[in-house]
Specification:
The chain is α+β, with helices and mostly antiparallel strands and 162 residues long. Helices cover 38% and strands 27% of the residues. Strand 1 and strand 2 form a beta hairpin. The protein starts with a helix and ends with a strand. The structure holds zinc ion.
Length: 162
């Protein structure tokens, strides 16, 4: 078997992350996101300046934001959430800042207040987990996690009564 066919075969059978937003990256790099400025090189996203030859693309995080297609959803509920709204929003923004510095695809999509608390959506599973852990350690609530089989999606329910 010649080399071209071999690599074709490798591609077919290589177990990939089954995440549509990662699987459809149009370029192997170098590339940069025209929306947020993140750059893509050797399979990794970073905030480093892109090379002059880099191709302009839209990164998976910006595409998820545009489509409002969350990888992580947190439902924060209970009287404590309603009574400490701003404190919680500040904490969530702080966790996002810290997380996306090293992981550009981990971002907030939106924080939506509702009658039982807050709904928070993220572009990455990791950020959703980090927010839930930060809430646990700051406020000692109760959290439940539900992942899909591929672990490309997480729903977290977090609550604290008083
Ligand atoms: Zn982007």
């Amino acid at each position: 078997m010649d080399k071209a066919r071999l690599s074709q075969k490798d591609k077919l059978f290589k177990p990939e992350r089954i995440d549509p937003y990662h699987a459809t990256m149009p370029s192997k790099g170098p590339a940069f996101c025209g929306d947020c400025g993140a750059s893509y090189q050797a399979g990794r996203w970073s905030w480093q300046a892109a090379e002059a030859s880099a191709e302009r693309v839209t990164c998976p995080a910006c595409r998820r934001k545009a489509d409002n297609a969350a990888a992580g959803t947190l439902m924060l509920k209970g009287p404590f959430v309603l009574g400490h709204h701003q404190e919680i929003v500040n904490l969530i923004n702080h966790v996002e800042q810290a997380e996306k510095e090293g992981h550009p695809l981990e971002r907030l999509i939106r924080i939506t207040p509702n009658s039982s608390g807050l709904t928070v959506t993220t572009t990455g599973v990791h950020l959703a987990n980090r927010i839930a852990h930060a809430l646990d350690s700051a406020f000692q609530g109760h959290s439940e996690y539900r992942h899909n089989d591929q672990r490309t999606q997480v729903d977290v329910s977090w609550s604290r009564n008083a």
